[in-house]
Amino acid sequence: MADDRLELPSYLEHTPEVRERIEALRARPVVMSVEGLTREFDANGVRTTALARVSFEVHQREFISVIGPSGCGKSTLIRILAGLDYPTSGVVRLDGLAVQGPGADRGMVFQSYTLFPWLTVKRNVMFGLKMKGIATASAERQALDWLEIVGLTDAADKYPGQLSGGMKQRAAIARALANQPRILLMDEPFGALDAQTRCSMQAHLLKIWDAVDVTVLFITHDLEEAVYLSDRIIVLGANPGRIVEIIDVPVARPRAPDQFLSGHFLATKQRLEELIHGPQMFQSRARTHAA
Amino acid sequence: MEEPVRPRLLAVRQPLSPRANLLVGLLAFAVPLVLWCALSYLPFVWHPLVLVQDPGDTTVAGTYAYLAEGQLVEREVFAARNVELARAKKKLARGERSNPMYVQPPHAVARALYTAFTTAPEGVGDVWFHESLLQSCKVIFWGFFWSALFGLPIGIACGTFSFFSRLFEPFVDFIRYMPAPVFGALAVSIFGLAEEPKIAIIFVGTFFQMVLVVANTTRTIDLSLLQAAQTLGAKNRQLVQHVVIPGILPALYRDVRILIGWAWTYLVVAELIGEKTGLSAFIYQQQRYRHFDNVYAAIVIIGLVGLGVDQLLGFLGRYLFPWESGNLRLVRLARGVKKALPGSMRPAKVA
Asked: Is A11 contained in some domain?
């Protein structure tokens, strides 16, 4: 039987252009460093390790994704980075300083919609600024600027209940960015959206990331989403949650949906699939084909 | 043409059609009213007594010779008297079937709803009906005011911070099981005979419930909203002020509506301790004079005032929380006022 699978390049093979971009990235200052993060949970005397000695660095203006099978500690990791959970050992540093609890320097976009339902979209975006004590008039101007960036100017005076899922997440992104955080943490922000909205939100996020000076750490379980968006992908394994591999995405920027079918894109996606679902799946298929 | 599918009257968790909604709602009041009319106006329904219109020949001696005109006697007694009279071959007694005094026909109560207000008090020291109504409302208002003044903040603190929850709730839970009326004697000794002990009873009756109810409502706030606020830089006090309180406000409003109902329940108890006051005093006094129509009128008035307050709060609630109801009229009004005010910070919206 003829094997009609495509001949893919290695995901480790970089074009000169991509290599140059990756090297430039590495040369940038480190925004966040995660050092030997371990998180254990004690439930009824049973000790489980959600994260085991996880270490990595995020560079200025990098788009980094974290991907892994369910139960690999993705959510625990981002909650610790946000300061909403605490590591059993290890430390998270932001610009060299150890993180202690949540703060405005790390913005977060959650999978569940977390806009304050009693505030209009504009007031939601102003929330962080008001917490900092910025005067209403100035906060309002800034909020309107951010709403323009995410394309929600017309919805400024609407309540979150009047928005679609995609619009809610755009507003949540604007709200997080309005604080001008050092890093934007995104916990499967498009996970609850339908496929088409997710697609347009991904393109939208890339545009925002392009226009705004911000570093992004993005949690997802969608392999294509990770490849499409990221500079680097951290692959976590389960039991205990640990880093299996960090992949430099060999796809050129700027990204466009037509790259979904490019050799480098598919090679990276295949590698992710191997890492997450195990190589057995591929070997068994190879054997069937050979037979 | 095909008939449109009509929603069934009994469908699990399905809304009624608007027409059915209205009709069934009216039925809720119409059915008891019809039953009441039947009981009052149909002589063959119940009517266990006989109103003596003519005692017949009163010279005939007998066990039941005491029958007099205008007297209400049991049917058996009336029949027995007529047996006595028939044996003596004298004029029989006449009478019509009647209900006891405490069953008043709708028209008498309806009339009393008006005449209760216009009838001058009979005894010395008695008060007009509207005065007693006002007294009751005052006691309710102040009792609930004090209870809310302390109960809401403490409840919110308990629902927000485990520290306050442990500090207050076990004790509040303990007191909650003591019925408010048992504090009556104490309240009178401490506050005297005037309105204060009554306000204190309403306070005791609602405050402890309020702390627990408000604490539980506060705990229903979506944790992810609090976490989102924390990642936006909000600290303790800001979290309470800008997330917890606005987040639970609509639910809190509903709680208050229910708790006001509790206050009405304790009103009657409160008014009967020490010196009787308010509507309860009026009801007792009217019962003493055997003016049962006024008794019913006062009871109906309590119901109407309670229902009225509740409906008013419900009506306001539809405008107060536009993010829940989707009713933006009040918001538009506020925006309009803001724009019309001189020195408005924001310039006219650029098209």
From this structure: no
Tell me which residue of A273, A274, A269 sits closest to A9, measured CA to CA.
A269
Q: How far is A96 from chain B (nearest CA, A)?
A: 19
What confidence score (pLDDT) does residue A7 get?
83
Q: Is residue B78 over pLDDT 70? A: yes
Residues in Cβ contact with B273 at an 8 Å cutoff, skipping those fewer than 6 apart: B181, B184, B185, B187, B188, B197, B198, B201
Q: Where in chain B is the domain with CATH 1.10.3720.10?
A: 114-321
Who among B225, B231, B346 is closest to A107 (CB)?
A: B231
Q: Which chain B residue lies closest to A112 (C-alpha atoms)?
A: B224
Number of domains forming the structure of chain A = 1
Q: Which of B224, B226, B231, B243 best probes binding to A when mutated, by most A CB atoms within 10 angstroms?
A: B231
pTM, to two decimals: 0.84
Phi and psi torsions of B239, nearest 5°: -60, -45
Query: Which two structure tokens, joined as six digits, stand for B48?
Result: 């266990």
What superfamily in CATH does domain B114-321 come from? MetI-like (1.10.3720.10)
In a domain, A9, yes or no: no
**Which pLDDT tens digit goes with each residue over B175-193?**
988 888 888 889 999 998 8
What confidence tier does B350 reach under pLDDT thresholds 50, 70, 90?
very low
Phi and psi for B12 in degrees, rounded to 5? -60, 120
Question: What's the whole-number mean pLDDT along residues A235-258?
Answer: 92
Q: How far apart are CA A130 and CA A76, in angstroms?
A: 29
DSSP structural state of residue B62: S
User: Which CATH number goes with the domain that contains A72?
Assistant: 3.40.50.300
Tell me, yes or no, if B243 comes closer than 8 A to chain A by beta carbon.
Answer: yes
Amino acid at B177: Y
Q: Which residues constitute the domain of residue A246?
A: 31-290
Whether residues A118 and B230 touch (CB distance < 8 A) is answered with no
Judged by CB atoms closer than 8 Å, whether chains meet at A114 and B246 is answered as: no
Instruction: Report DSSP letters for B316-340, one per residue.
Output: HHHHH-HHHH---HHHHHHHHHHHH
Q: What pLDDT, in 10s, does the model give residues B235-271? A: 999 999 999 999 999 999 999 999 998 898 899 889 9
Rounded to the nearest angstrom, the minimum Cα separation between A7 and chain B is 46
More reliable by pLDDT, A149 or A3: A149
CA distance to B142, B199, B204, per residue, from B212 (Å): 20, 20, 13
Which chain A residue lies closest to B223 (C-alpha atoms)?
Answer: A114
Residue type, B121: P
pLDDT single digits (tens) A128-146: 999 999 999 999 999 999 9
> How large is the ipTM?
0.90
